[in-house]
From TrEMBL:
<dbReference type="InterPro" id="IPR051678">
    <property type="entry name" value="AGP_Transferase"/>
</dbReference>
<feature type="domain" description="Aminoglycoside phosphotransferase">
    <location>
        <begin position="2"/>
        <end position="200"/>
    </location>
</feature>
<protein>
    <submittedName>
        <fullName>Aminoglycoside phosphotransferase</fullName>
    </submittedName>
</protein>
<dbReference type="Pfam" id="PF01636">
    <property type="entry name" value="APH"/>
</dbReference>
<dbReference type="InterPro" id="IPR011009">
    <property type="entry name" value="Kinase-like_dom_sf"/>
</dbReference>
<dbReference type="InterPro" id="IPR002575">
    <property type="entry name" value="Aminoglycoside_PTrfase"/>
</dbReference>
Amino acid sequence: MRSEVATLKFLSNTTVPAPKVFDFNLDETNPIGVGYILMEKMPGKSLNWSLTTEKQRRKVIDQLANIYIELQAHSFDTMGSLVMDEFGSQHVGPFASESTSDYTHSLKALGPFSSLEQYYRAHIELILDLIIRQELYASRPVDAFLIHLYLLENLSTILNNDLDGKFYLKHADEKGDHILVDDQFHITGIVDWEWAHTGPKSVAFNSPIALLPVALFYDGDNRLGEDEMVFAQLLEEKGHPDLGDIVRKGRFLHRLQFCCGYNSRDWDGYVGIFLGLVRALRIHDSHLNWETWKVEAMERFSDDYRLKSLAKLEFYT
């Protein structure tokens, strides 16, 4: 909640249509009895991307491009979630999401970080530790551990290096229903900022998840969807070819984002997303399947003592 307040306070000084905060009190001893945020109720209804026409989608995408351009005008020095000091100033602190927090003895959130690679190395190491502790992927620990070892080994190849060293605010739940629109599909509000964080340009201005071609993406196909192509084109036409280029080259980061801590209940979907990343890295193995990759990975990482321990545990359960 502290991060959400700080984020909304920051956005109030931009042209991004986010709720205004009227009051907040995060101390549970307040008269209400729980921490609260009293914020503006934004007009409009949640966007249902699958029910929109091509013309309506283009209108929304055009407005999203303007929001991206506005957020590019406000940079930060590190990667994490916004927090607010006692004087009301915002700065970057640890990540606010549960997926980037550890609860071993007390709550410990990851960050802030000075680079995207530093963030992902810490995040993946946390996931590996949670797998060992049987807190993640308990039904497929060896498979999940192999995937994350592979991600860790290939981080430098996967990641884009942003040369300006700056970080920008990114909404962390961009499925589409965070966008409110009126009957004419004017964007009236962007909501649900509680997990927002800063990231380098390649992360902050990659195409929103709502624009992904879902069937292709889950099938491991790395081609951009029509909506993404329109988004990149509009950014370029508005005088920001650098942002358009980020959208066109953003599939690696989409797949890395989905692979880290993905919901294991949809294992087939997870494998499809992961293999899309592997095939992109190994362009001569476009037909590589999971069984072949796993055999190779077990051999490659056979000296990892944690993997040996997991394999033994899985064998006896």
